[in-house]
Amino acid sequence: MSSQEFTIDQADLNKLTEKDKAELRQFFSNEEHRSRIQSQSHELTAICWKKCITSTIKSGQLDKNEQTCLSNCVDRFMDANLATIKHLRNMRQQ
Amino acid sequence: MDSEAVKKEIIRQALQATNTTNARILIENINEKCFERCVPKPGSSLSSSEQTCLTQCMEKYMQAWNQVNATYIRRIQQEMANNSFSSSS
């Protein structure tokens, strides 16, 4: 998370019950997951924008072809990703 | 502040920080991609057609982000169900 200053101090943290601490741990674990997905979505959008939005921009709406292209782009990127992982696994076993 | 209030404040600030970062990255990417697309040869000022292009490009980029995000989440859920990410399979 960013460098934003928290106004909560140690005395406040000491007030947290074990139950609330556990809840916060769960919250941060979920947030970390959500953050990772969002950050990957930023990268994927940049990559797929380059591949799929190639014609002159004439409207603020995605057309049907662009929508299909974006979905395919994400799915094929994941296929490629998984193929790499699979190949690395095979190399390690040899 | 009691425990409940401290917890709520921590959550509020954390969410705000994540959302600010997320918005900042999205805006940076929109600026980069749409400037590249809409202002190929920068002149002495932004023309009205360049401004229209920038507005439409921004709306389009946000739609693209939403669609990519939805497709990505669907795919991750699918792969998790198939156990594709586990290192032992």
List the topology elements.
The complex is a heterodimer of chains A (94) and B (89).
Chain A: H1 10-14, H2 18-52, H3 64-93
Chain B: H1 3-38, H2 48-82
Helix pairs in contact in B: 1-2
Structural notes for this entry:
The complex is a heterodimer of chains A (94) and B (89). Chain A has 94 residues and is mainly alpha-helical. Chain A has a single domain, classed as Mitochondrial import inner membrane translocase subunit tim13 like domains (Helix Hairpins). Chain A has three helices and no strands. The longest helix of chain A has 35 residues. The mean pLDDT of chain A is 91. Chain B has 89 residues and is mainly α. Chain B has one domain: Helix Hairpins. The longest helix of chain B has 36 residues. The N and C termini of chain B lie far apart (49 Å). The mean pLDDT of chain B is 93. Classes of the chains: A mainly alpha (94), B mainly alpha (89). The interface between A and B is large, with 49 and 46 residues.
